[in-house]
From TrEMBL, chain A:
Any one GO MF annotation of this record: DNA binding
Family, similarity comment: Belongs to the BlaI transcriptional regulatory family.
InterPro entries, per database record: BlaI_family, WH-like_DNA-bd_sf, WH_DNA-bd_sf
The keyword DNA-binding is annotated on this UniProt entry: yes
Record keywords, A-Z: DNA-binding, Transcription, Transcription regulation
SUPFAM superfamilies: Winged helix' DNA-binding domain
Protein name: BlaI/MecI/CopY family transcriptional regulator
Single biological process term from Gene Ontology: negative regulation of DNA-templated transcription
Native source organism of the sequence: Streptomyces montanisoli
Domain of life of the native organism: Bacteria
One Pfam family recorded for the sequence: Penicillinase_R
From TrEMBL, chain B:
Cofactor(s) recorded in Swiss-Prot or TrEMBL: Zn(2+)
Pfam families: Peptidase_M48
Keyword line: Hydrolase, Membrane, Metal-binding, Metalloprotease, Protease, Transmembrane, Transmembrane helix, Zinc
Protein name, as recorded: M56 family metallopeptidase
GO biological process, one term: proteolysis
Family: Belongs to the peptidase M48 family.
Domain Peptidase M48, first and last residues per copy: 127-196
Transmembrane stretches, start-end: 6-23, 35-55, 91-113
Cofactor binding comment, as recorded: Binds 1 zinc ion per subunit.
GO molecular function: metal ion binding; metalloendopeptidase activity
Domain of life: Bacteria
Organism (species): Streptomyces montanisoli
């Protein structure tokens, strides 16, 4: 059983890959190459994505043309900023492996590794 | 009055001197789980001391009959027989400690909720732009900057960027992912939220500042130790270096601090665990310390 979120991701994925506005019919046909899916299901989820502010739409004849509001790269960049950024008032929401650091601290790390006889990349 | 000054003195020792003592000792980095417990015990003890001090101040004759009954009474566990006349002092004695408890719980819940909302927003975007990898049991995002992090809590996610996948060897990547999973499995975000709440309420208190900073560092060490169960020290240490040293856009994420260096040195020089007897006594102290102020309040006063 696929979750609703998975179908949302599938629709966004296609629109981002095609890099052009598309109708629900086009998306349905493309998903149908892999598995059967009802037109109304995709239409409902596209509508949800529109209401969530992920998709824009324009009427083209009798059908809606959907397009992503922002590119995948823009969303990814925003994610990274959220994950790695260090705002003072950020709640303890994300735990990342190692913080980004200035050059002198990196040099100190390298020294510690060398002192222990471990190789580092040049 | 005697008990009040004793309690205030005790709170001073816990709030100002105890952190220095703990920071100077070497065992916390060798036994980070125990150390987190010790910091939390100090924080709890401080809160109890302040509460009991207020109670004692308002009710200096609250329990002339010291002993177990007095202790229970202080804890609010035993019903007081003669509560015929409720004075404003009585009210103050109960209201201030109660308010402090409510404040602590309130700020803690707010921290938890705020962090939960931030993670939900992040996860909503992540689930649309990220690619789930069932082999890695992680979500991959297409970004050149090396990054690995986790979203703890309900519906947890381990996230790794394409940059990190290219930078790290398979072993190193596994070690990093295990480190992140340790945060999720250990529910470290709740421990951190508690430390955060304490730090927000007692802003300016040395204990509060250190509890927050040290808890963060110690939780990283706990996750490192967890990753070391399945990976060599070399693998984790070099992974940490590669991730830290990767070039970032100038000024974009200039944070850091000495934590990475502390963790790296700790990985490179194997530390022997403290003797079980030592660990046992620290654990015993950690359990006792929050209760100490109650005993101080109930000791028969000489004056």
């Amino acid at each position: 059983m696929r979750r609703l979120g998975d179908l949302e991701a599938e629709i966004m994925d296609r629109l981002w890959t095609w890099k052009r506005p598309a109708t629900v019919r086009e998306v349905v046909d493309d998903i149908n190459r892999q598995r059967p899916i009802a037109y109304t299901t995709v239409m409902t989820v596209a509508n949800i994505l529109y209401n969530k502010g992920w998709l824009l739409r324009n009427k083209q004849g009798r059908a809606w043309l959907y397009a992503p509001v922002r590119s995948r790269e823009a969303y990814t960049a925003a994610l990274m900023e959220d994950a790695l950024g260090t705002s003072e008032d950020r709640p303890a929401a994300l735990a990342h492996f190692v913080e980004q650091m200035p050059d002198d601290e990196v040099a100190a790390l390298r020294k510690a590794l060398r002192a222990a006889g471990r190789r580092t990349r040049p | 009055m005697n008990a009040v000054s004793a309690l205030i003195g005790y709170a001073g020792v816990i709030g100002f001197l105890a952190p220095r003592l703990l920071l100077r000792s070497s065992w916390p980095h060798r036994a980070p789980v125990l150390a987190v417990a010790a910091w939390q015990a100090l924080a709890m003890s401080f809160v109890v001391a302040v509460s009991v001090a207020v109670y004692e101040f308002a009710e200096p004759t609250g329990h002339e009959h010291a002993g177990v009954l007095g202790l229970l009474q202080t804890c609010g566990l035993a019903a007081v027989a003669d509560h015929a006349h409720t004075t404003s002092a009585d009210l103050l004695a109960v209201a201030v400690p109660a308010a402090l408890t409510v404040l602590l719980l309130g700020v803690f819940s707010r921290e938890v909720v705020r962090a939960h909302q931030a993670r939900s927003r992040h996860r909503a975007v992540l689930d649309l732009v990220g690619r789930r990898s069932s082999t890695l049991r992680a979500t991959i995002i297409e970004h050149a900057l090396p990054a690995a992090y986790c979203l703890p809590g309900r519906c947890p996610r381990v996230v790794v960027s394409q940059g990190a996948l290219q930078l790290l060897s398979a072993d190193q990547l596994d070690a990093v992912l295990d480190h992140e999973r340790a945060h999720i499995a250990g529910r470290h975000h709740l421990v951190l939220a508690a430390a955060e709440a304490f730090a927000k309420i007692f802003r300016g208190l040395p204990l509060a500042r250190h509890v927050r900073e040290q808890t963060g560092l110690l939780l990283e060490m706990i996750a490192d130790d967890r990753a070391l169960r399945c990976h060599s020290r070399d693998v984790l240490a070099t992974a940490m270096y590669e991730m830290a040293a990767a070039k970032t856009p100038r000024g974009a994420f200039a944070a850091g601090g000495p934590n990475a260096l502390l963790r790296l040195r700790r990985l490179l020089t194997p530390q022997h665990q403290p003797h079980p007897a030592f660990s046992g006594s620290i654990a015993a102290v950690a359990v006792t310390v929050p209760l100490l102020p109650l005993l101080a309040a109930c000791a028969p006063s000489a004056g």
